[in-house]
Every structure is written in structure tokens, then in C-alpha cells.
Fold these 2 entries.
Entry 1:
Amino acid sequence: MNMLDTSGFSCPEPVIMTKKALKDRPASLDVIVDNVASRENVTRYAEATGYSVKRTDKDGKWILSLTR
Amino acid sequence: MKISAERRNLILTGAVVGAAAFILVLFGNPGNMGFCIACFLRDIAGSLGLQSTATVQYMRPEILGLVLGAFIISVIKGEFNPRSGSSPVIRFLMGAGVSIGALVFLGCPLRMVLRLAAGDLNALMGLIGFVMGVAAGSVCLHLGFSLGRTRETTRLEGSAISIISIILLIILAAAPSLLRFSTSGPGSMRAPVAASLAAGLLVGVFAQRSRMCFAGGLRDLFLIRDTTLITGFIAVFLSALLLNIAGGKFILGFEGQPVAHTDALWNIMGMVVVGFGSVLLGGCPLRQLILAGEGNSDSAVTVLGLVAGGAIAHNFSLASSTDGPTDGGKAAVMLILLFFIAVAAISIYMNRRKEN
């Protein structure tokens, strides 16, 4: 399972990191985000590029499970 | 077409911002200056005695309200998130640079939109520069620019700027003699404190919920072809435009616009600096205020940088007047651009080296 930890980065960096990680169209990717604005932005970007997003809460952070 | 909740929030926020700005001007704020984050922070710098241009000194309650509105709603919604540590000194300096650029143009991105919506075509020059600046910043982000990770910090640190805002509000209400107030010029033009504060609080709440950002809208369009955030930009423009037309305040042209100058080149260059700097900083001056209220100390430091920049702009005659830009202002804009380019280039180089 691919994992991308964007903790500590402010928008828009988590989205750009996600964009780069999705460049080769992996079947799935877990993205850790630690603030709501990034959570919304990464979710929106992933959905716009054809991934479905499942969200799990974890210690004040979120894991966004992206699957194609 | 189904409108997403995010887009709906941004449209609503745009309507609120446009209406609040219109009302504040009716109540006494300077023309097309219902809100101007850079100008108001500069006025605050003057009110605190950090710059001594007699015409631009006032403790603008709009600013205090914006920070506190974002603070209160983020606490209520569980989104208050104290963090710090992402290049604070660089952010401070870049904030000062953005402020000086804005004062060469005479407005932050929000006021640029409000000026456009009132028919001020000089703001169209500003928009051209702003788009170029945001594009340059977006390229840097794409190449790997980053000011680094933040870390969690204490709730006290995260709420420091909000506590300062409350204290300034108390001083404004109870001991105004401690502050300086313009008796003529833009600083003397002000809506009643209660109206300004209420407008600030309201917009602070809406802007926190919607994540409205003027630089972010264009940046997302360039970087990820996403039009969500720019909806807010357009909504502010349309709501202010409709109110200005209905209220007879729409006057199309370059000459005689309120608190504006007609030097196209430096209107463009001032906003290049603002667009470029705002993208590197992760948000326009309005967004920095909101993030500061949410507990982001890096944004709070950026806001302090904007205040310092306002003071520097007036102490060293860098700010434009209605007569046009100053020689110092032109030189400063070029130096700030070089500074931004240097910071971006070094950051990109270091980050790439780390990756390989």
C-alpha cells in the first residue's frame, strides 16, 4: 500500500504532493492530512481525477484512502 | 448542475463580503475600501505609532473582527489548530514585502476586486499583475517550493494574535487616547466602530468556513485545474458590482477613482509582488488573517510582517499616493521581487537536492 504523509504542510502543498504521487495512476494511495482545509482540497482533487475517497480519523489526523 | 457545499459556501461568503464592503463605505469607510487588508493593517501600524503619516492612522475594527470571527468559529467547529514553525522569519519578511507591493498598487487582492467592481480600470492593471504574480508563484510550487513543515504548538501560542486583537479592541473602546487617529485623509474616513467590528466578525466567520482566498483561486486554477476556490473571487466581484450599480456607485474609468493612481506599469508591478508573495505564503492577506485566527502562528507572523511592511512603506515613502508611485516605491518593488525569486530559487534547489 502506498502512503503519503502530508502532516505539517499547509495548503496547497498537500494537494501538489498528492498530484505528484498520483502521476503514475497507482491503483490506491493513502494520504495522511492533518488540517481540514487540506483534507477538503485533497479529497476534491482526488475525486476530480477519478479516485474514490474513504476517510478514517486517526489521532486528530485523517487518512484518506484513495482508490481508482 | 449540482453545486458542491464548498462552492455554495464560497458564493455565500462572496455575497456577504460584497454587501459588508458596500455598507461599510456607505457608513463612512473610504471609497472602494469597505475592506482592504493591507491598507487597514497599515492604518493600524499608524495608530500604534509605527508610522507617522498623519492621514493613515486608525485602529481598524474590521481587522480585529476578522481575526476574532475566525478564532471563535474555529473553536466552535473544532478546527482551532495551533501550529507554528514553518520558516517564521522568512514569512515575516515576505509578509512585509507583500504589504509594500500592495501599497504601491493601493490595495490588497480583496480591495482590487472591490475596485474592479466599482469600475476602477486601474484595478484591471492590478489584476493583470496579480495573475502574473500568482502564475509565477504556482510555477515555483510546481517545481517544489516549500517553506517547510509546521509543528503543533500550545493553545496559548495559537491564540496569541486573537488575544492581542481583544486587547486592542478594549483599548479602542476604553482608552482611545493611547492610539493615534487621523483627522483628515483615508484614516479619518471610518464607519462606526460597532458596524466595522460586526462586519469584520461576520466576514471572519464566513471566510473561515469557506476558506476563501483570492490568491488560492487563481493558483488552484493554474496548478490543478480546479475552479472551486475562484468561485469566491467571482462572487465578491458580482455582489459588489450589483450593489455598486444599484447604488449608483459604479463609475467606469481610470481618472478620479477613490484612493487610486493611474500609473499602469506600477499598478501591475505592485500586484505582481502581491500575487507572487501570496502564493509562496500559502494565501492572500485576508486568508493569512483567517488562518492566524485559527491558531496558525506562521500566518500570525505573516500578519505582523504585513503590519511592519505598512509601517516601512510610509516611513520610507514607498507607498503610492493618488498622485502616483514614488521612486522609492518602484525601487522597493524590484528589490522585493528579487528577494522573492531568491527565496523561491534557494528553497526549490534545497528541496530537490533533498529528494535526490
Note: Strands of chain A lie at 3-5, 28-33, 52-58, 61-67.
Entry 2:
Amino acid sequence: MALSLTVNGDRVASTADPAAPLVDILREELHLTGAKPVCREGFCGACMVLIDGKPTPSCLTPAALADGCEIQTVEGLATPGQLNRIQAALDASDAVQCGMCFPGMVVSLTHLLTASPDATREDIRAALTGNICRCTGYERIIDATLLALATK
Amino acid sequence: MIPGSPMQRVPAAAHNAASSIHVAHSLANALDALSEWGSAGAVFAGGTWIMRSPIRHEPLREHYVAIGRIAELGAVRIGTDVVEIGPVVTHAALAAALADLPEFNVLAAAAGRSANPAIRAMATIGGNLATPGFAAADCVPALLCLDAEIEVAGREGRERMKLEHFLQIRSTLAPGRLVTQIVVPRSERKTAHARLPLRKAGDYPVAIVSFSVSVDAAGRVQAARIAVGSVEPVARRWERLEAALIGRQLDAEGAARTATELAEEFVGRDGVDAPAWYRVSVLPSLVRRAAAAALGA
């Protein structure tokens, strides 16, 4: 039976097997390659997407449980041609490096800006527990997030 | 609708196929589906563990029944004598529900500090209980030290059992049965959860000590339940340490010294994160931390 997903506002049908990880459908069927299947264990956060508004590792989400859900990937977080608040702040703070973890970082932090508009440095650190970066050492990312929070 | 194309297999992490995942919306419907599939079916409990089956070279079941959207299994009911927890309550929701009940500090900490925020929002307490292969589950020792009971249901009826017994039989639960409730008694007690991940947060704990004591007006221990997780393949109580603390003034350093004398009873498990001996060697420090936190509660 075909699955019905809404991805970045588009209704999408998939015939993937029900236990297929959502990240594989996004990348292999829909060619949305922002989410990265890095650890496939829910540790690294590189495959993070928003499912019904919540940051969720798409590697651990079976297709059947994404059926009927609203999914936002990093490709759908901003108006085409523009950066959203956290993307602009990360750019302005020169916080972007290799790009492996960044789509997941942007997804988690986009949610943080909405869910915790008064987040402190410690709150940001806690929110990023499930997003691992091996390039930047996190501090610029946190600085950029504080900048984005201050840019209301 | 935009038609998708059939998914290409991903050679680097190929997953085995499951023929179906039935999303149940009532307990009766879930039990019917499980009954129909018999040994070919299983509850999709511990989904964050099941989805990693390919990494462990374990086959998926042919059929799964997802129970996460069954409203009657997703509540936390705080009563006068007991707290009843539905098996599909997420770690994040459980931590929030228990935040104002100091006697449940151990369980709130176990649920609120496990894994990472996104996992805590999807992983459930029932999933923690239903994954025999996951030795580092935080909620299992926490529930052991709280003397939890587990309700299991099938089409033929329901039964309740001590968590210790459930842990012994969970691998051989008959097809068609599932956990429907976790029942935790309320009492005057001081509790704390001490865990040692290799990083400050985000990793599985190398070892866990869950601690619950009742003390009299003079600070002497009247009752104690201490459970150890992640050290051996299955969490269990540390009954010799409990017995040694009864009647004594509770102090963290003294409890840690006693733990050092008794720790040889554990046979640690080797893992890629830590060798067996290390898991055992950190137990006294975790007992010290747990006792200090409980005293401060």
C-alpha cells in the first residue's frame, strides 16, 4: 500500500517498504539529500528532520510511522532564495564548515528558536546534545544561535 | 499527490524488509492484529532499537504492530497510592510528568537525561522494558529501585507481575501479549539516579546506579532498594548493598566504601564503549553520587 507523506508542503506517495528508514526515502526517492545517513543510530543528528514540528532522527523513523505526517527537511525551512533566521546567523558568524552535520544542526536550531525563544547558552548546548559536529567545536554555532535569538 | 519511485536499496546499510507495520488505534485492535500474526508478528516496541537491527545483523520481524498512537496506553496517572504509566509515554513526557514529585527523582532523571532530546521525544518507557538486548536502558534500574510492577495483556486477559519477574520472562512472552501499564507505588523515600556516560550527555551510560532509601528521623536507613544497570546484560538489584545500609546512618562516603567491598559480585559485560572491569570499577563512585544526591533531595 502506498504511503502518503507531506514533505516541505508537497504531498508525496511512496511504495517503500514499511520499515524503510525515512532518511532513505527522502534521499533516494525524493532526492532531498540535506539529511545525511551518517550513524544510523540516532546519535549524530545529521539526518534530523521536523516531523509534525518536532526534531526527529529520520534514520530511526520507519516509513509506516511517517505516513500522514508533515515532514520538513532542511531544504524546506526557508523561503526559496532566502535564509531563515538561524541560517543567516550561522552564515554571519562564519560557523559553517564541512556541511555533514549542518543540515541537522539547522533543523534542530530552527526548532529551538521557535520553541525556546529565551534559550540560554546552556539551553542551546542541551538542545544540541544529539547533533554532533567534528569541525567547529560548537562555540561558533552557539554564538550564532544567541545572535539569532537576539535578532527577533 | 506526487508519485514517488520505488526506493533504491542502500548497500552501505541495507535493511531487511518487514512486510507490514500495522498502526493500531486501540488496544483491542492491536491485540487482534498480534493474535492474527502469531509468532510472525511483534509489537513495534523499542522502535529506536528495532530500526538498528541491520547494524546488529539481526533480521526484522515479518509483521509489526505500532502502538504509539493508542491513547489509552499514553497517559501518566498520578494517584494517591500509585503512579500508573502507560507504555507509550515518551521519556520526555515522563520526565515532565514527574518533575514535581521528589520521591520519583530517580525516574525523572532516568527519563530526562537518557540519550538526547530528539530520542527522548520518541523513545518510550515500554520500549526500554521491551528490549532485552539493550543493557544500558536508564529506566529499567530506576523502575527496579521503585519496586515497579508490570501489567501484561493479551486477548485472554491481563496479569500483573513484579518487574524482576518480567525481566526474566520478557524474551519469551507468548505472541499476542504486550505491556499495557507500569505501576509504581508511592511512598516517603529519597531517590536518585547516577549514570556515567563517556561524554557529559548523549552517550549510553557505562554504568548506572538507581538509588531509593527511606530514613528515620535520626537519618538511619530503614529501607533501601538499589539497582545497577548497564554493568551486566540485565539490570538487577544490589541486595547485599541494600542489606548493608539498613540501620546505618546514610552517608555518601560510607556507602561508597561498602560498595567497594561488595562490587566483586558483579560480572561486567565487555562492550565497544567500555571493558567489563571498568563498568564494575566505577560502581562505588556512582553509589557515592547517588547517595549524596538522595541525601540532598
Note: Helices of chain A lie at 22-29, 63-66, 85-92, 102-115, 121-127, 139-150.
